[in-house]
Amino acid sequence: MMKTADLPNRVPVFPLPGALLLPRARLPLHIFEPRYLQMIEDALKTSHRLIGMVQPYEARGENGLHAIGCAGRITAFSETEDGRYMVTLAGVSRFRVSAEVAGFSPYRQCDVSWSGFERDLGATERDPEFDRPKFMASLEKFFDAYDLKTDWDGLEEADEELLINSLSMLCPFEPEDKQALLEAPSLTTRRETIVTLIEFALRGGQSEEMMQ
């Protein structure tokens, strides 16, 4: 387990809309753009092997980044015959972007602060107010409404952090909603946010484009 002192002050960032990574969760990535292929190769040469996942800030145009992202450590890596990379990131900690670094790198890099996210490096978080039967009933209605498929047995057996974080990452919420889930200060708040998003969707608040 990494400690705050092990975390670098600068990380390469991958601004991918709708792709959410959370601490202690895993995110598979298919890398094919040359600049991000280079990013993976450079990250693998470091001792920490960290990459920062950050949501682009659409309101500020193509180059805007949200202030908070999450760093993941490359824990699995394979190369296809045509030169693409399949990697898995294991979520380590959220961070706050201090400044984007100008330079000659083909990919973007940011100076970051890990302050305020010490809990991310700790033990599995609990949600003492979690009502699993009620939550799962709402989730089943949501999946039925949008014709989504899942391993219900696996969801039933997952502990609350794995369940809530996995749904935050996998459910087809809008990028700004994903950012709200990332920035949730606690697992309880994240679960409450998911419930709000599900209820909003079931009331018809989400357009069909959400599922594209």
From TrEMBL:
Signal peptide: none annotated. It is an enzyme of class 3 (hydrolase). PROSITE patterns: LON_N. The keyword Cytoplasm does not apply. One of its GO terms (biological process) is proteolysis. Pfam families: LON_substr_bdg. Gene3D superfamilies: LON domain-like. Residues 11-202 form the Lon N-terminal domain. GO terms for molecular function: serine-type endopeptidase activity. Keywords: Hydrolase, Protease. The keyword Magnesium does not apply. Its EC number is 3.4.21.53. This is Lon protease 2. It comes from Nereida ignava.
